[in-house]
Design a protein that fits this description.
Layout lengths: L7 E6 L4 H7 L1 H4 L5 H17 L5 E3 L3 H10 L2 E8 L9 H8 L2 E5 L28 H13 L2 E2 L6 H10 L5 E2 L16 H10 L2 E5 L2 H4 L12 H14 L4 E5 L10
Helix pairs in contact: 7-8
């Protein structure tokens, strides 16, 4: 990573929802489902990576710590939760994860949970795929704001996105999303959403997944790297350079091979 000039990034704590496991890997669905335990184990792995790195990596808890890492050539690790399905509605677990070092969270991963509705639909389609935030979801956004925890809108459907835009006092951030105008995946962002993120002072991280890049929505690795450049160009023209980042979505996607 450091040889390639990679300064740091978000490292995701992620456990697929039980409904997804049952559908995609039914043999695993027979095992006990303990998502919260796995989430703590994944955070522990990240903490161990930092502890065993001999000072070459650090789990960062603030922007100042990230800046220090960049200045000293240390890999900046930021713990991120993708999908809050295992968290309670009262906010106790969110606070516990924050105290343990997590600084970013996406409430959804595709499927509905107690906080609202993730974006889930077939290509091509609008991101308007269902209802928005529930009452618990709205309280969740407010608590994340109070903790100064970054909220990731990448897996929100359009109604949940606009609910968050109205409620949140923090910049809107989509960690791994692309332009819906170029690839009509429901998970990609419309120009109106991109403009709202820009207006909030937020940022969008470009997704490297073929299915979110190609105009035909195919998960075909015979995809030119230029497709990533097209989405970068669209976001740069729509939002400006200070609002565009690299989100990658590594692990679980097929990427351009040429």
């Amino acid at each position: 990573m450091q040889q390639g000039g990679f300064a740091g990034g978000l490292f995701a704590i992620f456990v697929p929802p039980l409904a997804y496991i049952t559908q995609m890997a039914p043999h695993h669905a027979e095992q006990p489902y303990q998502p919260l335990e796995i989430m703590w184990q994944q955070l522990d792995i990240l903490q161990q990576i930092a502890a065993c790195s001999h000072g070459r990596a650090k789990l960062c808890r603030s922007a100042a710590e990230i800046a220090e890492c960049r200045a000293s050539g240390v890999l900046a690790l930021v713990a991120h939760i993708e999908g809050a399905d295992a968290l309670d509605g009262e906010g106790e677990l969110l606070t516990e994860f924050y105290q343990a070092g997590v600084r970013s969270i996406g409430p959804f991963w595709n499927l509905p949970n107690r906080f609202g509705y993730g974006v889930n639909g077939r290509f091509p389609a609008s991101p308007d795929t269902g209802d928005g935030l529930t009452a618990e979801g709205k309280a969740f956004i407010q608590q994340a704001n109070a903790l100064h925890m970054m909220i990731d809108v990448s897996h929100m459907n359009e109604k949940a996105f606009w609910d968050t835009a109205r409620l949140s006092c923090a910049p809107l951030v989509a960690t791994h999303s692309n332009a819906h105008a170029l690839c009509a995946q429901p998970r990609n962002l419309t120009d109106a959403q991109l403009e709202a993120i820009r207006a909030s002072g937020g940022v969008v991280g470009i997704n490297f997944g073929n299915a979110f890049l190609r105009a035909d929505g195919k998960r075909d690795s015979d995809t030119p790297l230029a497709e990533i450049v097209k989405h970068c160009d669209h976001l740069l023209r729509t939002m400006g350079p200070e609002h565009v980042a690299l989100g990658s979505d590594f692990d679980g996607i097929s990427t351009p091979m040429r």
